[in-house]
Amino acid sequence: MAAVAGAASSQDQLPKRIRQWVTGQDGLDRLRIEEVDLPEPGEDEVLVEVRAVSLNYRDTEVAMGLYNHHSSVSHPPAIVPCSDMCGTVVSCGPVTDSNSPFKNPAFRLQVGDRVISTFAPTHLSGQVQASDVAQGLGGPEPGVFTQYRVFPTYGVVKIPEYLSHEEASCLPIAAMTAWMSLNCMRPKGEIIGTSGAKEVILCQGTGGVSIAGLQIANAAGADVIVTSSSDKKLEKASKMGAKETVNYKTTPDWDAEVLNRTSNKGADIIFELGGAQTLRKSFECVSFGGLIACIGYLSGKQDDDGDRTNTNLLALKRNVTLKGILNGPRDELERMLVFYKEKEIRPVVDRVFKFDEGKEAIKYLFSGGHFGKVVVKIKE
């Protein structure tokens, strides 16, 4: 391995000390700000000035010590939370040359490049591995809720110019999870909207993943059904292009309603975010040969005592594919960004908090009142 270029750096003009949020994974109320030395980039690394961080439900679990369903994820005593950021490269370490896929010359960056983080930096292509999850930002690896952070060049991706920092920060997990839910089971090279078939997509709820799914699917020409307990949120979804909306509080048999709205066909892809209390109904309203994308567990991680879901029988009933969606690889993120630019999709930002309001921002996300994404602006 040989160094082929020296460091490009404006490090001398940067602050010597920076502020960052830290969690001991002991509760939302115990999130705190600490001051640390400014890090410096090493070989094939860049120092990024973080401009905006978007929050995910996962971040609340990490802060509460509840993110425990991946055996490869350790639990350090204190960690910088959050995984999704947009920022500007302010310093570059020396570039080295080798045949490693992590040293791809296409990953090289320059000072001034605007970039977003990838959730699991080592996940470059294909199916995610336990070793990739073990490198996840914001748990177990240090996250991005900080003013400056060093990244390997393979762990950040340049963004289209039309997106603001706040908008772009919403892409790494929420939009990427939606993208993979819509595209992961297709023939190689094919994406939603290119097969010629009119698809029906069911998005549960109006959080970041479902709203991104609505935007992507709508831009691709699919029919989208959105469920929520809030008529106000459903009205917003309709204005964004949802063909059908269902209030699952006033229509508890929402699975039957989905079948009714689709002439008994069902949804080709279901964004399954509820978990224990919604999965059985998802099986009942997915199309024959359709996909249930298992994304979340907002109704809890424990099965209901009275519900013993016979997954084999339910899957066979409609020839269903059940697929866990754990974000996606770098190459799919790059492909998604091309689609976003072509369709000029702008992520929906529900509310923007200031850096010092980080604790309030995570609590607001946990309350569930948001529509789309919650963002913290790191630099005013």
Topology (elements, then pairings):
Layout: E1 2-5, E2 8-9, E3 17-22, E4 32-37, E5 45-54, H1 57-64, E6 84-92, E7 95-97, E8 114-117, H2 130-133, E9 148-152, E10 156-158, H3 165-168, H4 171-183, E11 200-204, H5 208-219, E12 223-228, H6 231-239, E13 244-247, H7 254-261, E14 267-272, H8 279-285, E15 286-294, H9 311-317, E16 321-324, H10 330-343, E17 349-354, H11 358-367, E18 373-377
Parallel strand pairs: 11-12, 11-14, 12-13, 14-15, 15-16, 17-18
Antiparallel strand pairs: 1-7, 2-6, 3-4, 5-6, 5-9, 5-18, 6-8, 8-10
Task: Give an overview of the whole structure.
By secondary structure, this protein is an alpha/beta fold. It folds into 2 domains: 8-172 and 347-377, Medium-chain alcohol dehydrogenases, catalytic domain (Quinone Oxidoreductase, Chain A, domain 1), CATH 3.90.180.10; 185-324, 3-Layer(aba) Sandwich (Rossmann fold), CATH 3.40.50. The protein is built from 11 helices and 18 strands. It has helices at residues 57-64, 130-133, 165-168, 171-183, 208-219, 231-239, 254-261, 279-285, 311-317, 330-343, 358-367, and strands at 2-5, 8-9, 17-22, 32-37, 45-54, 84-92, 95-97, 114-117, 148-152, 156-158, 200-204, 223-228, 244-247, 267-272, 286-294, 321-324, 349-354, 373-377. The strands form 4 sheets. Strands 2, 5, 6, 8, 9, 10, 17 and 18 form an 8-stranded mixed β-sheet that branches. The protein has a 6-stranded parallel β-sheet with strand order 13-12-11-14-15-16, sandwiched between helices. A two-stranded antiparallel sheet has the order 1-7. Helix 4 (171-183) packs across helix 5 (208-219) and helix 7 packs parallel to helix 8. The longest helix has 14 residues, at 330-343. The radius of gyration is 21 Å and the shape is globular. The chain starts with a strand and ends with a strand. The relative contact order is 0.15. Residues 27-376 form the Enoyl reductase (ER) domain. GO terms for molecular function: oxidoreductase activity. Pfam families: ADH_N, ADH_zinc_N.
